[in-house]
Predict the 3D structure of the following.
Amino acid sequence: MKIAINARNFTSADKAAVQMLIDGGHEVVDFGDLGMGIGTDEAKVIETLGDADIVIAGLEPYTEKVFKACPNLKMISRRGIGYDSIDIEACKDSGITLARTFGSVEGAVAEHVMAYILYFSRRIDLQNESMHKKLWERMLMPGAKGRTLGLLGFGGIGKEIAKRATAFGMQVYYHCRNPKPEWTAQYGARYAELDDMLAMSDYVSVNVPLTQSTRGLCDEVFFSKMKEGSVFINIARGQVMNVQDLKSALESGRLSGAGIDVFDTEPCTDSPLAGCQNAVLTPHTAPYTSENFIEMNRVAASNVIAFVNGELPECNRVV
């Protein structure tokens, strides 16, 4: 099989996953250094795929147009768990199997959310800056213990965030479509209606997939319902929020801060939030740890091998 690798920086942390594919007798062509992602033109995807049978994909688009131009394509192995950039119906119509690296990314993303929370709750950066100026300024910070965290979406990532937040002594609420009573005991998080959760939370983390119902969900009305002085965190997708509305909420003081890891198009170097002193921006690095990349790459490659052998685990299969 010919395998194209379009996922960014696939070999930057470790080359073991590529070697797995080569050892399996496959031809591997690595385009991971092209930096494809959200907003990449379909023509570029078509160019890299060519006559490949399988692609290890990032967040670049896979559409009906791409599938028609690349008739050899039999499988998309998504490195990651979100698949909003992939046309599922077109996959089905074209007989293309889609798999993802379920269970490998959630912990690292949850860690990133906690990093945002600790940033705003302790502001070590300000204290460090003061000390380097040879000043002794003891700054009273809000801390994380006893603060309330609201989780919009309670899938694998939401659950991992809850486990970490409760360990810090935070009160955790979640809102999702299908809550389960047993999750309170399992994860220390209680269900709340959306408006109630927004009103009581010091931090709101968005962890939902991008769908028709979530696109633009976090808008002016959403931010107006959040607790005054609270912090908004988005590690889901850029299109879930209205960035101009968020900027207005930050500049007006309605929100005291925001931690944003995802953008409408990526790479993004011209975000409207750039220059907002109370916005912390990171370049979609929530899953970007060496350990996590090695694991995601390994699972993505393993899914390819399992597919070829007719043994793809159902838990990793989307279609």
